[in-house]
């Protein structure tokens, strides 16, 4: 079954949006297979955001993502990578449609509430950065 990595960022955790975010994905029908509240180290932040190294916003991005607890999650379901990105909305909350998570709860690109993997390759990479295989739960087929 397709899996993706989603993370409520420090702004979302601080503002009490974990429940709202989890609820949206649960109601859509996706299954939560792993979750933890954690503080990201500089090293993990650099690995996770490796593709952005060298960009002007990279230092601030690392500073922000390590600034407080995040809620890291793995979700699974048919088409979860594409659908979860639709549900999150565009990276810049000012461009994100109302009804999406960033459109409803975000204001600026650096504090856009949630991160989600953008492809199968990045989902696999990000899941393995944040979780061990034995932390991923397995649902029985008819549950
Ligand atoms: P995310 O989906 O976590 O992936 C990279 C993050 O960089 C992005 O969300 C934004 O929160 C953050 N970011 C900060 N500044 C910028 C910027 N100027 N352009 C794009 N992304 C930015």
Q: Count of DSSP E strands? A: 4
The structural class is alpha+beta
Radius of gyration, taken over Cα atoms and rounded to an integer in Å: 14 Å
Beta fraction: 15-25%
Main pleated-sheet profile: 4 strands, antiparallel
Helix amount: 25-40%
Average residue-wise pLDDT: 97
The termini sit apart by 14 Å
Ranges where pLDDT stays below 50 over 5 or more residues in a row are none
- The general outline is globular
| Distinct small molecules bound, one entry per kind | adenosine-3',5'-cyclic-monophosphate
Separate helix tally: 7
What is the N-to-C order of secondary-structure elements (H for helix, E for strand)? EHHEHHEHHEH
Strand order of the largest sheet: 2-3-1-4
EC number: 2.7.4.6
Binding site for ATP: 9, 57, 85, 91, 102, 112
InterPro entries: NDK-like_dom, NDK-like_dom_sf, Nucleoside_diP_kinase, Nucleoside_diP_kinase_AS
Keywords: ATP-binding, Cytoplasm, Kinase, Magnesium, Metal-binding, Nucleotide metabolism, Nucleotide-binding, Phosphoprotein, Transferase
Brief descriptors of the model:
alpha+beta; binds adenosine-3',5'-cyclic-monophosphate; 143 residues; 4 strands; globular
Describe this structure in words.
The protein has helices at residues 10-14, 18-28, 42-48, 58-65, 80-88, 101-105, 120-130; strands at 3-8, 31-38, 70-76, 114-116. It is an alpha+beta fold. The chain has a 4-stranded antiparallel beta sheet. Adenosine-3',5'-cyclic-monophosphate binds next to loops. Adenosine-3',5'-cyclic-monophosphate (CMP) binds at residues 52, 57, 61, 91, 109-110, 112, 115.
């Amino acid at each position: 079954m397709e899996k993706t990595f989603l993370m409520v960022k420090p702004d979302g955790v601080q503002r009490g949006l974990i429940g709202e975010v989890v609820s949206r994905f649960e109601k859509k029908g996706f299954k939560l297979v792993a979750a933890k509240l954690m503080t990201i180290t500089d090293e993990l932040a650099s690995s996770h955001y490796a593709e952005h190294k060298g960009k002007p916003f990279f230092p601030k991005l690392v500073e922000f993502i390590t600034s407080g607890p995040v809620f890291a999650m793995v979700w699974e379901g048919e088409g979860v990578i594409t659908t979860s990105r639709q549900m999150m909305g565009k990276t810049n909350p000012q461009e994100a449609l109302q009804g999406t998570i960033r459109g409803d709860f975000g204001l600026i690109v650096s504090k856009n509430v949630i991160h989600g993997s953008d492809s199968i390759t990045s989902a696999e990479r990000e899941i393995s950065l944040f979780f061990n295989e034995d932390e991923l739960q397995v649902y029985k087929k008819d549950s």
